[in-house]
Amino acid sequence: MSKVHVKLTVNGKAHEALVEPRTLLVHFLREDLNLTGAHVGCETGHCGACTVDIDGMSVKSCTMFAVQADGADILTIEGVAAPDGTLHALQESFREMHGLQCGYCTPGMIVRAHRLLQENPRPTEAEIRAGIAGNLCRCTGYQNIVKAIQHAAATLAGEPFQEAAE
Amino acid sequence: MIPANFAYHRPSTIEEAVGLLASLGEEARALAGGFSLIPMMKLRLAAPEALVDLSRIAALKGVREEGPEIVVGAMTTQHQLMSDPIIAAKVPLIPETSAVIADPQIRYRGTLGGNVANGDPGNDMPAVMMTLDATYVLAGPNGTRSVKARGFYEGAYFTAAEPGEILTEIRIPTPAPGAGYAYEKLKRKVGDYATAAAAVQLTMKASTVETIAIGLTNVSETPLLAQDAMTILAGSRLEPEVVDRAVAAAEAITNPASDGRGPAEYRTAMAGIMLRRALARAASRAQG
């Protein structure tokens, strides 16, 4: 099968490559571009560990071919922090609020939460839970992930973080 | 899980897509959002020799009003349906259904056309389109034709679409203003197919049901239109004994599989419960 020429932008950097049509986007990112932040979890489109942001949409990169992303503007977890390494408010909040244990789901969680907060800057707890329903975490029970996203939303809005009453 | 190799085509017009499918033959498949086809390819349960990616065909996208119909392009995504002002104002049954399909990531790319054209009895939109009495427009090598959603589903993964035809748009008769609607879906977890689900669209006048349509999801080889239940309820005031008879009539046409979602008897009973809830909610929303 002939390879297909693709051009795309990842974390602000332009890339061109020849790919086999069957190459999944997550494999292209990890193996061709060495961006190993998007994780291969379930490989069946359920767990969300492979979530990346494509043209303003959260996408499970294990269920998309790289050729489908031709021309796209992609953000992966590697592009969330500032170029000088300063962590994004979401990254700081996940650390501050203990929003991770093993960390396997964390890149997908943060990239997904990043898009959620763009669409809804001050989500309720219920909206956060619905918004990250496509991302599975097997460690935390989600409590601190939700708290971290609330904390980040407050930080980004320049407001004090108020923990919801138990 | 790496799929078998295939040739990739990305047409920009419907004519080009139809021409490609005709020249590539039966081993080629149209690719919409990919959330049915790509997992099947990864499992090697499907190994098409060529994919025709419909995602860059502008004519397949968007929502418009055309006379007495709402026309939805087949490649319009669930996410777009959840935020489209025409759909929200005129056919709110659709975004209510989109919201319980899969998860946010999949709704960004999963399409209405992919959901209805695949013939998967687990998909939610087919029963909703039957409830709304939608018409599917198919483009093929011999031109375009229209097929009613109510006549489209022939068996699990078997539909009235011929090889080489692609679904281009879904035409929905605009519901009467003030119509009541509800989609009730029981599922084990986010992203799961329905254990059972029911769609109701109705109009009421002076507490009496004027018109009603009922669809059932994932309780048979195909989505179901609960015709007998509709006949029983039309003209009623939704009296409890009438609802009981209608629910019994709807349960009677189900034929679910016993699987991880529960034994067949349970799934039939849950179809009845979903119908009761959908009826109550639709009636409470109806004006008039």
TrEMBL record, chain A:
Residues 4-80 form the 2Fe-2S ferredoxin-type domain. InterPro entries: 2Fe-2S-bd (IPR002888), 2Fe-2S-bd_dom_sf (IPR036884), 2Fe-2S_ferredoxin-like_sf (IPR036010), 2Fe-2S_ferredoxin-type (IPR001041), 2Fe2S_fd_BS (IPR006058), Beta-grasp_dom_sf (IPR012675), Diverse_Oxidoreductases (IPR051452). CDD domains: fer2. Keywords: 2Fe-2S, Iron, Iron-sulfur, Metal-binding, Oxidoreductase. The keyword Flavoprotein does not apply. GO terms for molecular function: 2 iron, 2 sulfur cluster binding; metal ion binding; oxidoreductase activity. This is Carbon monoxide dehydrogenase. It comes from Salinarimonas ramus. The lineage of its organism: Bacteria, Pseudomonadati, Pseudomonadota, Alphaproteobacteria, Hyphomicrobiales.
TrEMBL record, chain B:
GO terms for molecular function: FAD binding; oxidoreductase activity. Pfam families: CO_deh_flav_C, FAD_binding_5. Keywords: FAD, Flavoprotein, Oxidoreductase. The keyword Flavoprotein applies. Residues 1-177 form the FAD-binding PCMH-type domain. This is Carbon-monoxide dehydrogenase medium subunit. It comes from Salinarimonas ramus.
